[in-house]
Amino acid sequence: MPLTPQDLERRLVAALAPARLEVIDESAAHAGHSGANAEGWGTHFRVRIAAPSFENKSRVQRHRLVYDALADCQALGLHALAIDILPTDETR
């Protein structure tokens, strides 16, 4: 069973307690590409996230926190992950 946005959200909330989080499955846009599956979902995701734990950390350190929170997802079918770090105080 491919991953869902909710699978990634659960892991990120548990690990980082984000102030803002959006997980988007972009797999359909990658149909036929490397890492895509026959279902057309659950392989390519975009994460938009703001978390207090990112404060005073470099871009690389922030991305590493996200990757660490999702470490087991690669074995579950995650092929590509785009990460957009948002300011913690951002309002939308």
Protein architecture, described:
One of its GO terms (biological process) is iron-sulfur cluster assembly. One of its GO terms (molecular function) is DNA binding. Pfam families: BolA. This protein starts with a helix and ends in a 7-residue tail after the last strand. It is globular. Helices cover 25% and strands 21% of the residues. It has one domain: BolA-like (GMP Synthetase, Chain A, domain 3, 2-Layer Sandwich). A three-stranded mixed beta sheet has the order 1-2-3, with helices on one face. The chain is an alpha+beta fold and 92 residues long.
CATH-defined architecture = 2-Layer Sandwich
CATH class: Alpha Beta
Largest sheet: 3 strands, mixed
| Fraction in helix | 25-40%
Percentage of β-strand residues: 15-25%
Distance between the termini: 33 Å
**CATH superfamily membership:** BolA-like
Radius of gyration: 13 Å
H/E series: HEEHE
CATH topology-level fold name: GMP Synthetase, Chain A, domain 3
Beta-strand segment tally: 3
Query: Helical stretch count?
Result: 2
Overall SS class: alpha+beta
